[in-house]
Specification:
Elements lengths: L1 H13 L6 H56 L4 E6 L7 E5 L10 H5 L1 H4 L2 H17 L3 E6 L5 E8 L4 E7 L2 H29 L5 E3 L5 E4 L1 H6 L5 H6 L7 H11 L11
Antiparallel strand pairs: 1-2, 1-5, 3-4, 4-5, 6-7
Helix pairs in contact: 1-2
Length: about 260
């Protein structure tokens, strides 16, 4: 400011004008204030333009998000699906959408979440186990479950950063036939595993063979009888409990009838 004042005074003297130092300082201060105001105005104009552009972009994004939300709500509110959403561990889940009445799924929130009340026991147990794994370990799942009304439903479980979603979907008639086959396959697999568990507990050697005649499964008593480390080792090493002649005799009789019952020496 003092530099401006000195320069202004020099200019005034060279021009032959009589200007006091105070007047020169006032003029310099005025010029400085005007310059600062001009710079501030330019900065504010540029910031306002940038803010307006950002606001326009945000309004566009909000409009897109609202449109996507409306589409999602429209899809979720269809009468052939229902979604259970957990926003956090401490909040109660929110239910969106409905399932057909013929599915046997209750409309009431508490009754719907009590899976054992409206699903077949095996389906309810599988679903509860899958939901627990999804919430605790973020393990996604896809299941086909059966209601007590005999209607199959498809269930999908997914976890995002903020939500846990379990989606129940009612199937078309074509897909229901496929789903029933899948449920029946699951039931047979569970029965098969139960049977193997019972056979494994027997104190007598028991074994199963594959279509090519090789050992497929043996119980613990079989492994002990053939002095194998365990059942898996007995199968892997193909350790036979009976001699070759006895095995051939059993295989030959199986061609005529499925049950072999005879004393072997």
């Amino acid at each position: 400011l003092l530099g401006l004042a000195a320069h202004a005074e020099t200019v005034a003297q060279s021009a032959g004008l009589s200007v006091s130092t105070v007047e020169v300082m006032q003029l310099a201060m005025f010029a400085g204030v005007m310059g600062a105001a001009l710079v501030s105005a330019i900065f504010l104009i540029r910031e306002r333009a940038r803010t307006s552009a950002q606001n326009a972009e945000l309004r566009t994004r909000i409009a897109d998000v609202n449109a996507a939300l409306q589409r999602s709500e429209a899809l979720l509110n269809l009468r052939d699906q229902r979604v259970v959403v957990w926003a956090s561990e401490n909040k109660k889940p929110e239910l969106i959408g409905t399932l057909p009445l013929e599915s046997g799924a209750p409309e009431d929130r508490a009754a719907f979440l009590a899976f054992g009340r409206w699903l077949m026991p095996r389906s309810a147990a599988a679903l509860e186990h899958a939901v627990a794994a999804l919430r605790e370990k973020a393990r996604a799942f896809d299941l086909v479950i059966e209601t007590q009304a005999g209607v199959p439903l498809e269930v999908q479980g997914r976890k995002s950063a903020a939500h846990v979603l379990v989606r129940f979907v009612s199937l078309s008639e074509t897909l229901r036939s496929q789903a029933r086959l899948k449920i029946e396959n699951q039931r047979l697999s569970a029965d098969y595993e139960t049977m193997l568990g019972l056979l494994d507990a027997l104190k007598m050697p028991t074994w199963l063979r594959s279509a090519d005649g090789r050992l497929k499964w043996v119980n613990r008593a079989y492994a002990e009888a053939v002095e194998a480390q365990n059942a898996e080792a007995a199968v892997r090493e193909a350790k036979e409990f009976l001699g070759g002649q006895a095995r051939e005799q059993i295989a030959e009789q199986h061609k005529a009838r499925p049950v072999f019952e005879q004393t072997l020496s």
